[in-house]
Amino acid sequence: MFNYWRLQYKAAPYLYIAPFFILFAVFMLYPFVYSIYLSFVEWNGGGEKIFIGLDNYTRLFSDKVFWQSLWNGVIIFFLYVPLMLVMSLFLAILLNKEWMKAKGIFRTAFFTPNIMAVVAISFVFVILLNTQDGFFNAILLNLGLIKEPIGWLDTPFWARVSVALMVLYRWVGYNMILILAGLQNIPKELYDAAKVDGANSFQSLWYITLPLLKKIMAFCTILSTVGTYSLFTEPFILTGGGPLNSTITPVLLIYRESFQNLNFGYASSIAVMFFVLMMIFTLLQLSVFKEKE
Amino acid sequence: MIETKVERKLTEVKSPVNIKMKHSIKVWTTLTLFSLIAIVMMFPLFWMFSSSLKERSQIFLNPPMWIPETLQWANFTELFTNRFFDKVLLNSFFVSGVYTIGGVFFCALAGFAFAKYNFKFKNILFLIVLSSMMIPHEATMIPLFEVYRSLGLIDNLWGVILPGLANAFGIFFMRQYCSSIPQDLLESARIDGCSEFRLFYKVILPNLKPALGTLGIIFFVNQWNNFLWPMIILRSPENQTIAVAVRALQSGVRTPYELIMAGSVISILPLLFIIFFFQKWLIAGLLEGSIKG
Q: What is the ipTM of this complex?
């Protein structure tokens, strides 16, 4: 009897963590290791796997589309992240004011797009941004702001703007909530002390609020970087990565090369590079997080 | 310093009406601005609802049609009678529901084990859990597809559920929460002759309720919006989840945008429900997820 109790006490933690490790091994670790192997072979998904050494990687590094996908990430990032952070900060600061009214309603309204189905939101944007009589062009034309309809999804520049616009729309509220949480952690006494010392509200914003939000802003920036490079659904539905690969992202490229072009070996080398990229971002994120503790 | 204080006091005394007016102008401009932004944020959702009740020819019009004169409920009946949306909706609820319950349960088990037991290799095992966060799902898709072929998980809803159940963030989250449970509670249950699993089930789980709710809501929303992997593996129309099924409507020569919008509306209704009734949990979870995860 004593032994049974001891045994089940000893065994319990291992049993409790077993589901994770079994699932992790089958659905993550094994495929991950296997994809490193696949990055050294040529394989169309059905036939034989031919070992070709580093050929996939040499091809990858001279592949214009691959570099384009990384470059697109940079452009899209700069098209929306600075604007989004400023907007989120602005909204959060005002929502945090004591005199602000209907805080709950506004918070909900700004945050709702973030949890709405990406596929659904993407399709609405497809309709709104349609060149022929989409809502955006119709309104802009009627107001006389433009003479010719804008090819929102048909020209490289505007396609990137459109993807950036949609990502901004989905994530501004989320970042606002993160910043709001940061604001609420700033002790009120700091502001009271500043007021007593004669600081105006702009000064207390500049010298108290912003410095104390530095970490959280850095954090939001890194999250947005990871998010931008992992984009798939938005460009997939809005533009399919086009026109002229102007909105292709690494994940979209992996999908295209593997499940559409059946270059599974080559696609695996992109996947491995994508992993390396994400790991760098995650390590950055962890270092910011550690400093925060 | 004292002087400025006195000065401030003086101005306040001098013109209380002026200050009050300034204040109310500030409040009302902010409220107006915020209302405008909220309208902009809600507009795509409004347009989705409006377009879902239009005829195909009414979607792209200049000037735009805000609300259709005759409501085309037929768009919805078409989805349910000819496009398997009854089945699709059920699939989505099944996948998200099972994933939520299973995921939360496994995370609670493992989180509890890591928080409240001492066992061999505990630290290294926990490190493995954490480092699993570094493997992005997109980097494992190609070999995972191979694994699925051999396990018969292609075109199978379990194939959507299983990989996500190994969730490092959830375990981390639960571990944090479990460590706040007092040790005395466990010891007294054990002295009463409670077996380890009974202890978890009867003592721990009820104490974890808020954490279970928070994590559960996040899991549900994420799985409901999951798109890329389900799109890859779910092939037949009657086996698809709603995100995949909505996107699958986009085929043929003319895209049936009115049906896509109707499908989109169906896909966001449960999410709107969640926003209205579980928003607090959702936001709590998002904060935990981003800041501590």
A: 0.91
